[in-house]
Amino acid sequence: MKKGFYMVMTAQALSSIADNALLIAAIALIADLQGPEWMAPMMKWWFALAYVVLAAFVGAFSDTLPKGRVMFITNGVKIAGCLMMFFHAWLGLDNPGQLGLVFVAYTIVGIGAAAYSPAKYGIVTEMLEPAQLVKGNSWIEGLTVLSIIFGTVMGGVLIHPDVSHALLSHDWIGNIATTRSEAAIFVVSLIYLAAAACNLLIPRTGIQYPIQQRNPIKLLCAFRNYVCILWSDKLGQISLAVTTLFWGAGATLQFIVIEWGAQHLGYRLDQASILMGVSAVGTVVGSAIAGRVPLKRALSVLPFGVIMGLAVLLMPLVKQPWAVYTVLLLIGGLAGFFVVPMNALLQHRGHVLLSAGHSIAVQNFNEQLNILLMLALYSLLLWLRIPINYIIVFFGLMVASLMLVIMRWNRLNHQENPDLQQAIGQHGHGQAL
Questions:
Q1: For the CA atoms of 374, 375, 376, 377, what is the dihedral angle to 10 degrees?
Q2: Reduced to 3 states, what is the DSSP secondary structure of residue 251?
Q3: How far, in Å, CA of 271 to CA of 265, rounded?
Q4: pLDDT exceeds cutoff 80 at 347
Q5: What is the arithmetic mean of pLDDT over 351-360?
Q6: Residues 6+ apart with CB under 8 A from 419
Q7: Nearby residues of 78 by Cβ (< 8 Å), 6 or more positions away
Q8: Which is more confident, 217 or 105?
Q9: Is the pLDDT of residue 238 over 80?
Q10: What is the pLDDT of residues 152-180, one digit of tens each?
């Protein structure tokens, strides 16, 4: 791996740690403000909405400047949203107004994340050869999941009564923060600053793209064309369908685990955040093992998506800590193993057909749109007061069924195009533009 690749991973890890710690801190803030249960997943819904709304524009922005500079600018947007959330009580708003401001602040963080993503993934295809993409994605996904673990656990630790008391007792934190969530958000802002410093150290790859369109209408038309190109590609459509399903399911599973911990296991928020970390440990292991899968054999991991959906059905059956941890490790491991090769294949086809920035923007658009749909469905089920274990069964069966459909779709593609496998690993850039 190139030296600059490790700096990309460091910057990505710090930014991801902050993102996940901020989510837990924001959920705690909503609880402190006595917001309803459905508000936390809806906050994530607004975060994902930024990816969908801005998808046509962030790809062009990512390909306009060096990727490291794009990551620095967009990380600054995240810092702005984080600080707005920190100062939610300083404007003299009533309780509903403060809850609304938290929503706006987290949406701003989502805007930064939406613009950050094409750069952080796009630079991988600029730095690495196709043969190294699965290994590179294994590193990126493994480190990302480790940062999810660390960030989630950190968020839970920061809002723990003992830790929050210690933070608020500190002179220079206690002078500006008055609650556990404010102290946690302040610490998260410092991590974002560290990520910004790393962004400045990312070397330029020397790859330049054509001058990007700036007319919003033309950008939207071009983006629609990019979406059609990837969905029309027989390899791109399968990998895009899988990653779209995976990230929608993964985002929903975060909130399911928190609610499951509260209803089924009787855990507090800081304890339930540990469960999210346990699942993420399994994803790290699965991602590491997936790094051994050659790009040519990426499609062979599809059955593991079906098994993952079925493994979710075990959650309502376990209560003992060892059984809970085992099931969550299994679910995470299966998820990591099948999504890494799929992600690498999608990035490869996107780079060959489009460009690094635009292909990742298309990927984000589809994945975040699915997150919107699945989180909206989950929020509706909570609003209807459906027991969490019923929701889990529905969720697991849906994932397994959709993966079976995708596997059938893939077989039909290969039957119609016997030479399709030969397209995996080919060199090229922007062939469909």
A1: 50
A2: helix
A3: 10
A4: no
A5: 71
A6: none
A7: 15, 18, 19, 108, 109, 112, 113, 116, 192
A8: 105
A9: yes
A10: 788 888 888 888 888 888 777 777 878 88
Q: How many CB atoms lie within 10 A of CB 53?
A: 16
| Cα-based angle 108, 113, 116 (whole degrees, multiple of 5) | 130
* DSSP per-residue codes, 30-67: HHHTT--TTHHHHHHHHHHHHHHHHHHHHHHHHTTS-H
Asked if 356 and 122 touch (Cβ cutoff 8 Å), the reply is yes
CA distances from 8 to 121, 131, 143, 325 (A): 9, 19, 11, 31
Q: Quick one: which of 107, 121, 89 has its CA closest to 9? A: 121
299-321 confidence digits (pLDDT tens): 888 899 899 999 999 998 888 88
Reading the block at residue 62, the tokens are 């990512």
In this predicted model, what pLDDT tens digit does every residue of 97-140 receive, in sequence order?
888 888 889 889 989 988 887 777 777 767 766 666 666 666 77
**Rounded to 5 degrees, what angle do the CA atoms 33, 34, 35 make?**
95
Provide the residue count of the chain: 433
Cβ count near 321 (within 10 Å): 11
Average pLDDT in the chain: 81
Return contacts of 157-161, CB within 8 angstroms, 24+ apart. Answer: 157/270, 158/21, 158/24, 158/25, 158/183, 158/184, 158/187, 158/188, 159/24, 159/25, 159/28, 159/184, 159/269, 159/270, 160/270
> Pick from 261, 249, 252, 258: which is nearest to 335 by CA?
249
